[in-house]
Amino acid sequence: MGRKETLFRMPLAITLACSVSACSIHPAPFTESHFTLRAKNNIQRMAAYQEPISGAISLGEAMARALKYNLELRIKQEEASLAKAKLDLQHYSLLPKAVLNSGYTSRNNLQASTSLNLITNRADNSPSTSQDRQQISTDISLGWDILDFGLSYIKAQQSSDEVLISRENWRGTLHKLMEDVRTQYWRASTYERLIGRLKKLQSRTDAALANSAKRSRGYETNRLVALNSERELVKVKQAINDLEQDLINAKIELARLMNLRPGTEFSLDISRRPHNHLRINMPLDDIFLLAVSKRPELRQNEYEQRINIKESQANILNMVPSLRAYATGNQNSNSFLLNSNWVSVGAAMSWSLLNVFQYPAKRHVTRSKQQLLDMKARSLTMTVMTQVYLGLIRYDYFIDKLAMAEQLLSVQKRLTRQMRLEAKASRVSEQELILEEMNELIAEARCDIAYADLQRAYGGLLASIGIEFSPTAESDVPLDVLAKALEAGWDAALEHIHDADLIVNETRPVQG
């Protein structure tokens, strides 16, 4: 009896020991050295495997680097790859279920029993057995459930729509990225073109400011005039600092978009092509229709609605009884069996009545979600149409703003040339000349910034319409090849617009 009690208590003791050990688990934080090593690894991998900078970066190369190396866009690419991998995995759920089982059993004694004759009501006390103490069993079963197949087919269709949604997310991120690169590139090129003159003018301003401060403390000139002159020079210096800070931020932001390590030295190709004035000669309603049909957000909403419709179909299918057919091949080492190998086939049907009672609630959820998605589609339509309309207005506004900035720069250059002549003739002071040179520099910077804003409006208008203009970045495509493809992509975008009854004309030269 003691031995039986020991055998009975052993599983209980093992279970209790496992429970106690599970309760004794404590948090195990990483060490500081681990975090440091991980940080070094992240920094090294952040900009790893990138083609080095070999010269001045053109707009096409900046776009290519952003398309190929920008981490936010690569996240969207990985999300698309993950969605495709999930779809590939979902295909396996359509196949029949195949299960292989193998087991070994052993007893410390024989499984023996006595019997009772139910007719004579006499007991046969001689023990007998029909099983060996040790047995090995193996079976392989193949089953196919019609209901599971139908539900898996619907889930695979939903997964395929998820792949398309991830593609539209990538497109939206791509459009925004290219728009930002264009803007920051031209603002950063303004910094490169003007930084030398800014530094030189700042040195002259500092010298003039020191001279003005000295004069304001003396008695050889009117102190009020000297202080006013000093104040104007301080304003000039402040304007120089503000302009420099605003433009240097653009270069830092451009480096981030290209995934260059902060502090990396690089130069830009500051040459410019004349901007093509885009004129849209088609009805506004047709432009709206083109934009609403092409924008990634609305396409994504369409796929989400289709996923929800598939979900309602799955809810209906869940109410259908499940019919399962199976075939199993078995093998057992029990020596008492007459047939140790056998095949069994069968079919079974089950019906979850709870799914029938749950259907009204599930139908209400899917209908509510469909109404929500439909309302979002209408809201997105209004947003897209508004963005397109504002894009058209903004584009025309920046065309005029650039023209006015160029006109102001032309006038300011003539005024500065005249001021230099007056300064040579000693009819104006050095402070007045510096002030006009600063005004010319600011006018030139504003002209460049207006050009950058026009480029942003230009890219934003194409993006608001949803025009596809960039190829997919493959890891093995050389950077220069991708840059040329991107530059051709913008031209192709214009051709695409031209095919949609939008025309490009009136080349507007931009003054350097």
From TrEMBL:
InterPro entries on file: TolC-like (IPR051906)
GO cellular component, one term: efflux pump complex
Residue runs in coiled coils: 226-260
Protein name: Outer membrane protein TolC
Record Gene3D superfamilies: Outer membrane efflux proteins (OEP) (1.20.1600.10)
Signal peptide from the UniProt entry: 1-22
Origin: domain of life: Bacteria
Subcellular location, record wording: Cell outer membrane
Main location: membrane
MF GO annotations: efflux transmembrane transporter activity; porin activity
Alphabetically ordered keywords of this record: Cell outer membrane, Coiled coil, Membrane, Signal, Transmembrane, Transmembrane beta strand
